[in-house]
Amino acid sequence: MHKKKKCCTPVRRHPLCEKMICGLIAVQCLILTCFAAGEVSVPQSVNEPEHHGGFLTEQVLSGADGDIHYSYYLPENYRADGAYPLVVAMPGYDMMWFGEQSSGSNLNWNGFLAWTELDEDMIVVSAQLTDWGEKSARQAIELTEYFVQNFAVDKDRIYAAGYSAGGETMSQAVSMRPDLYAAYLHGASQWDGTYAPLAEQQVAVYIFMAEHDEYYGSQKARDAYRNLTDAYREAGVEPEIIERLLRLEIPGDDYFNGLGIYNYHSGGNVLFDDENILNWILSAQKSTGSSQTGTGFSDVAADAWYAEAVEYVRDNGLMSGTSATTFAPNDTMTRSMLATTLYREAGSPAVSGSDAFTDTQEGAWYADAVLWASQEGVISGYGNGLFGTNDPVSREQIATILWRYAGSPSADAGQDFVDESEIASYAAAAVDWARANGVVNGANGNRFLPRNSASRAEVAVMLCNYLTQR
């Protein structure tokens, strides 16, 4: 028998909860008075959804595996014709359903409330299930589908979150229906689901576990991350995309102690207080067909200035999407990513030896590309033993890299850009060549902006311009 330990303590009480509790008491008293007088009829269905904004608590859905007890939040300005992200969050053991006396015990859980406090409007639902096995996983899926069918949910942006026992449940739910969820936040829990289904759908996963979690230990988190990484690799997902889709965070004792936390398992709830983590989850999306454009990416409009270039680099195997349906055109391009892109364009030739950089890792997804680029003189380091693996590539750097890749051809010098004096001396000839050959164009006011980081969209355009005109 799998025996669970109590593991959650509500971190704070949301001010709206105080108002809801008082309001519920008043309404209950009014209903009982009216009912006694024969003035109120009892609703026949517990499944009738309510669509006014705010918190709606202690609801019951009669499902295939029995009753599902849940509470939910709708934005104050909720509109039935809108399209809102949906977050389905499952709490730990001591907020599960143990009968009427436990009803609403998840209302103060920050894993429920934190999402409602973000700037973006969204629908948030949290259930009190009865176990952490397959039955509860099926109920979590059923509850998700109920909201999709009855509320204004953006089907491309459905997210799962689970803490402790809720994490055991949701890791199974996400692996059962990876087509349903765009991303999953797995907090202070062991992974009870499978891995390959998530890889096939490229679900984004963030795993958070204290180094010395008293209940699970941190090795379970490491094992889950490794197994997910292996599954994504076996599914043919590009290494740099895996790096974007999978995150593992294991804070040490000092991190928690600095917050006044000394019980590391219950302290794992602090992950929900980190807006960077929540927004990372919310940045993921998948396409159910409702938002995908003619480019094949939901975030690249068919008429975007970079759309044709994105299609070119994708069709020629030079750049992949950041997921099956997104390209992330505004994300920055790193030096290791650019090295990998040019390495692919060169045919991924065999390499031997090792590079002399101190910030590269042997066997990493970019290792062969960086070695090739440095040996061919296409990309050099900073001269201090650093390659700048994860540094964003600047506009003058990419012009120089493409110029070297083209064989460092000569070009007439000229005052082509109004900020020509800001271009580094090492990049001057390259920028002249790039402008003369239509590889780069000026920004507003005919400025080159040499030190600005190049976005993925800009790199795609420069590559397309160069490779289609050479």
Give an overview in words.
The protein is of the alpha/beta class and 470 residues long. The chain contains 16 helices and 8 strands. The protein has helices at 15-36, 110-116, 134-150, 165-176, 196-201, 219-234, 239-245, 253-257, 264-267, 275-282, 307-315, 335-345, 367-375, 395-405, 428-436, 456-469, and strands at 54-63, 66-74, 84-90, 123-128, 153-163, 183-187, 204-208, 246-249. The N and C termini lie far apart (68 Å). Mean pLDDT is 85; it is low at 1-45. Residues 293-352, 353-416, 417-470 form the SLH domain. InterPro entries: AB_hydrolase_fold, Cell_Envelope_Struct_Comp, Peptidase_S9_cat, SLH_dom.
SSE topology sketch:
Blueprint: H1 15-36, E1 54-63, E2 66-74, E3 84-90, H2 110-116, E4 123-128, H3 134-150, E5 153-163, H4 165-176, E6 183-187, H5 196-201, E7 204-208, H6 219-234, H7 239-245, E8 246-249, H8 253-257, H9 264-267, H10 275-282, H11 307-315, H12 335-345, H13 367-375, H14 395-405, H15 428-436, H16 456-469
Parallel strand pairs: 3-4, 3-5, 5-6, 6-7, 7-8
Antiparallel strand pairs: 1-2, 2-4
Keywords: Repeat, Signal
Domain SLH: 293-352, 353-416, 417-470
Protein name: S-layer homology domain-containing protein
Query: What is the terminal separation in angstroms?
Result: 68 Å
Instruction: Find the CATH topology of the largest domain.
Output: Rossmann fold
Strand content: 5-15%
Radius of gyration (Å) = 26 Å
InterPro entries: AB_hydrolase_fold, Cell_Envelope_Struct_Comp, Peptidase_S9_cat, SLH_dom
Organism: Pseudoflavonifractor intestinihominis
Keywords: Repeat, Signal
Pfam family, one: SLH
